[in-house]
Amino acid sequence: RAKSAGGNRFELADEEADARAITRHGLTTALPTALERGEFFIEYQPLVHLGDGSVRGAEALVRWLHPQHGVLGPDRFIPLAEHTGLIVPLGRWVLEESVRQARVWRERHSDTGPMRINVNLSPCQLSHPGLVQDTVEILERTGVRPDALCLEVTESALIGADDDLLKPLRRLAEMGVDIALDDFGTGYSNLANLRRLPVSVLKLDRSFTQSMQQFPADPVDLKIVEGIVTLAHSLDLTVTVEGVETGAQAEQLRILGCDTAQGWYYARPGPPDRLHELALVDATA
Ligand code: C2E
Ligand code: MG
Ligand code: MG
Ligand code: MG
């Protein structure tokens, strides 16, 4: 675009780049105080069983209520927090806060079965030596069982991971914590590699869900998803699909054998009480 527009567009592009850099710098320096001041909050998005439509749990998604910029999504600040190391205390806060929330749901919905909580882990948290200890302490403090917790790690974070990096995940998996491979299918998925990883859930990336949008869906994509699901199930893994926006997608993915779904079709990420409502509607339906 800048190319065809001539000289002053370049200046404009420069100014925009400057403005972005200033914001980035400003956000980076504001991160530690933001954590102290309680400017972060968590939205929860329900995880729905494709077979019977019941709410089985939720994924915790962090947001920052910035005093000047309003609500910022994780893509705006997680990379900065990773860069500065703040991701470790921030991630610990997200874990404790959302596990606490799972405990509240469980108390209020003992009749709707176990409510599970999914929490995203960044690669920096994986290589931080306190991960296992912090998780154990949080579970003990909140009285939540390890098998109600699922930690999501992206496929790219585990690409070429050596044993040192996998060790804490193995420890957690042995305790009963589920490990999910997030955004599966976007990286250099080496399917054989799956056997080496202590994962029990595959989260199929949104790009697959998107290709189920057209009718009829791309036959090659259908085959790929079918193949992934078959392989996953034969390895005793559960398959969750991300980004389900329409009923048609949900139906297609259910037919292909996916187990759980998440997406705007069911609910956008929202405050914890929304999940109470969704689960209650579900229980009385
Ligand atoms: P993710 O873990 O893959 O989370 C799913 C993202 O897809 C979320 O974006 C969610 O809001 C969005 N989404 C859900 N349903 C739909 C849908 O139907 N259509 C579309 N178009 N999008 C949908 P969000 O909340 O902006 O989070 C982005 C990423 O930030 C997450 O991707 C995750 O990698 C990261 N993240 C979020 N919270 C945390 C956290 O506490 N710690 C760390 N380390 N990363 C986090
Ligand atoms: Mg995730
Ligand atoms: Mg994901
Ligand atoms: Mg994703």
TrEMBL record:
Signal peptide: none
Domain EAL: 24-283
Superkingdom of the source species: Bacteria
Protein name: GGDEF domain-containing protein
Residues of the full protein shown: 427 to 711 of 711
